[in-house]
Design brief:
Blueprint: H1 4-20, H2 38-57, H3 67-85, H4 102-118
Helix pairs in contact: 1-2, 1-4, 2-3, 2-4, 3-4
Length: 119
C-alpha cells in the first residue's frame, strides 16, 4: 500500500484540527506524518483510497453531498479502520456521527472535500 494518499489525508486532518479545534489539541492530533504510528498511517491511506474511489465512482457527483454527508463518509471509513486495527476499541474511538464533537465533524468534512478536489 502506498502511503502518499495517507500523507495527504493526515495533512488535511492536521489542517482541520488547527482550524476547527478550540484550545490546544492533544499532541497526537497534530503529530507529523513521521511521528504517526504505523497502524494510523495504514488507516489514513486506506480511508484516502476509499474516499478517492467513492468520488471517482460517482463521476464527481459527490459535490452534491452536504458537508455532513461528506464528513459521515470519512467518519464511517475511519471507524472501519479502527475495528480492523483494534479488536476491542474504546467506545470513543468508534463513536457515531451524532456523538462526535463539532470540530471533528468539520475536520472530517474538510478531509473529504480536500480529497474530492484532488480527484
Amino acid at each position: 500500500m502506498t502511503h502518499d494518499g495517507g500523507r495527504t489525508f493526515r495533512e488535511a486532518w492536521i489542517a482541520g484540527v488547527n482550524k476547527h479545534y478550540h484550545g490546544q489539541p492533544k499532541p497526537g492530533y497534530i503529530a507529523s506524518w513521521e511521528d504517526t504510528p504505523d497502524w494510523e498511517r495504514d488507516a489514513a491511506a486506506a480511508v484516502y483510497d476509499q474516499i478517492r474511489a467513492f468520488v471517482a465512482a460517482t463521476g464527481g457527483a459527490t459535490s452534491k453531498l452536504t458537508r455532513d454527508q461528506k464528513g459521515r463518509v470519512v467518519a464511517l471509513c475511519w471507524i472501519g479502520q479502527i475495528f480492523k486495527h483494534f479488536p476491542d476499541p474504546k467506545l470513543s474511538y468508534v463513536a457515531d456521527w451524532h456523538d462526535l464533537p463539532d470540530w471533528q465533524k468539520a475536520t472530517d468534512a474538510d478531509i473529504f472535500e480536500h480529497i474530492e478536489q484532488s480527484v
